[in-house]
Amino acid sequence: MEKEKKTTKSAGNATRSAVSEKKYFEAVGRRKTSTARVRIWQAVKASFVVNKKDVKEYFKTEEQRRLVGDPIIKGAGGQEKMDYKWVIEAKVSGGGIHSQAEAVRHGLARALVSFDVELRHKLKTLGYLKRDPRAKERRKFGLKKARKAPQWSKR
User: Where would I find the beta strands (DSSP E) of 64-117?
Assistant: First the structure.
């Protein structure tokens, strides 16, 4: 009889062999009213699809494409473990195009951490794991917008 290999957990962190048995890694990212569900898995050829479109087709500007790819380039780029290619699939809804890009970045960073816990410190330092809490302020009665008051008249 052969002995079964056991994967160990040390100090609450899953070892790489225990995590890599999953088919894909999924995470949710949010920003303002945008929500992104991001799935990543390893493959021979890399691809990045957002709402069934190529990332270059969905995010038109270079800044938005840079925002979306930052967790892989900056966060995981310096590590030898990240030599393989990723297939990234994101489904985004709500908000504007910029907040959607930031939601995808948040979800991608979370998915990378679920793949490899050692990336957590670097991604956290870069600020990609924190959900940006800023959102539009509600309108108050008696005002035109959230803080803009109507013109004051003495009489």
Answer: 85-93
